[in-house]
Design a protein that fits this description.
- By secondary structure, the chain is mainly alpha-helical.
- It has a single domain, classed as Rhomboid-like fold, CATH 1.20.1540.
- The longest helix is centred in the first third of the chain and has 35 residues.
- The termini are far apart.
């Protein structure tokens, strides 16, 4: 019986880990192609603030990075935080959360980013997953959500400073609004889960 439970648990983990792992592998393939074939030219498809064409960058930016060093810095936080979100939620919820983060994070960079700058990278997703896991504890008030938030805060509390303005070409705008997007997703999911239909049984 215990062996069967272990096999079931491993099976439940297999799909989420394959999806998030496959996504990260795709990011490395794209960056490899960009560096070897296009000499970094794909970076121009990131978010370009307050330009019409730059709106398309909201969708493409999470797939693009400014070199292998940039991608390497994002790889492990994306794998770990993305896996936690995916394992703790339904698969369709994970895609909904990711979509909300990408849209709000990208729009934030598009609205307040410096003109003539380009914003790209999966760090918006990282900050979004971080924000989602923390704020889910507030909106849901469940033991599971609080426990996950404590663990995440324990290991990743240092990244919160990334939402503040800083130099070095770091898109703090994407970080900030990605975090906001994670909070919005947490709120929306908590509201949806609260709406449990009530069935009233009339006496015969």
């Amino acid at each position: 019986m215990q062996e069967r439970k272990n096999q079931t648990s491993l099976q439940q983990l297999k799909t989420p880990l394959m999806i998030i792992g496959g996504f990260v592998l795709l990011l490395w393939i794209i960056e490899g192609v960009d560096q070897v074939v296009f000499n970094g030219a794909l970076d121009g498809f990131g978010v370009r603030p307050r330009t019409l064409n730059g709106l398309w960058g909201i969708l493409w930016a999470p797939f693009l990075h400014g070199g292998f060093r940039h991608l390497l810095a994002n790889t492990w936080p994306l794998l770990i935080l993305g896996s936690i979100v995916m394992i703790s939620r339904r698969l369709r919820d994970f895609f909904f959360i990711s979509f909300v983060i990408v849209v709000i994070g990208g729009l934030g960079a598009w609205l307040i980013g410096p003109r003539f700058s380009v914003h790209l990278g999966a760090s918006g997703l990282i900050f979004g997953y971080f924000g989602f896991l923390l704020l889910s504890a507030y909106f849901e008030r469940s033991c599971r959500a609080i426990a996950i938030a404590v663990v995440v805060l324990l290991f990743y509390s240092g990244i919160i400073w990334g939402v503040l303005p800083q130099g070095g070409g770091i898109s703090w705008q994407t970080h900030l609004f990605g975090f906001v997007g994670g909070g919005v997703a947490a709120y929306l999911l908590s509201q949806r889960e609260d709406r449990v239909p009530i069935t009233i049984h009339e006496p015969l």
